[in-house]
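Hi all, long-time lurker, first post. I run a small reading group and we've been trying to get comfortable going from sequence to structure in the token notation. Rather than ask abstract questions, I figured I'd post a concrete chain and ask someone more experienced to write out its structure so we can walk through it together at our next meeting. Sequence below, copied exactly:
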Amino acid sequence: MRQAGRSLPEYREVREGIGMLESCLRPDLAAEITLQPVRRHGVDAAIFFSDIVVPLKLAGVDVEIASGVGPVMDRPYRTAADIDELVSRDLDEAALAPITEAVHRTVSELSDGAASTPLIGFGGAPFTLAAYLVEGRPSRDHLAARTLMHADPETWQRLTTWTADLTGRFLRAQVLAGASAVQLFDSWAGSLSLADYVTHVAPSSTRALRHVADLRTPDDAGVPGIHFGTATGHLLPALRDVLVDAGVTHRTVGVDYRTPLDEAAGRLGDDVPLQGNIDPALLGAPWPALEAHVRDVVERGRTAPAHVVNLGHGVPPTTDPTVLTRVVELVHSL
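-- Answer (accepted) --
Happy to help. Here is the structure in token form:
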């Protein structure tokens, strides 16, 4: 997960006195933080260190990461006039330069030596970006965002089309700079009903992923796409359908810790690889409990055609790094 580094003492050291968004926008620092979990844990891929709201910042939205709170906008954006102001802003190549440079640096480091470790690009899904903008800050139920999508569907569509293009350009820049795959991360989609997701959200996520669907890897294959959301057990087939509709040829659905992988595989069919879904809470449990859980996750994952073993959400900052290393070693032994 993209937060893999935050439990590391070396992460805290390099970020001392430096804000989250500044860390994401300094290419040397973003590359270093991306690489730290690879060096420490020996994982099979890196995921680009960034934040969901970075594209908003690059497009000129006044957003900051408040300690203990999360992304906070200068104000909520809830009216048609507010959205008109937002969609007049663009995310051009010059604004994306720090991201491109950070990915170049990271890929260069990951390719150094006999074996190359792939980099997974990262972007926040259009709904999650839109929800932050409408709410103005993190929210448990996203009432304002859900109200807007029904009260003024046209304005909602203009907003999510704009956030889709922001995320799409953000992901495309990472792939063109050397990322081998992309992950679309929808933090808040779980607050939606299936009907609302399909009608008001899926089209924008599809639009975002279309920005990379035409790109090719060095072996002339399509860029793999991972679609992940939290509390989205009821949406898993819809997450898959977004990948299909976007034209992503190599598709993986991320599953959070709430849904057992064999259940997810049953809902998605025999042609969809899964990613997930070790419960982050068990990283603080005694090793026998964690080991049994990891083995259970791997065994349930065998019901899918392929399985990317990962956490079912982010790494708690209090996690003992040696535990993560031990989990990686266990999974490799299996």
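A couple of things your group might point at:
The first strand starts at residue 46 and ends at 47.
The mean pLDDT is 94.
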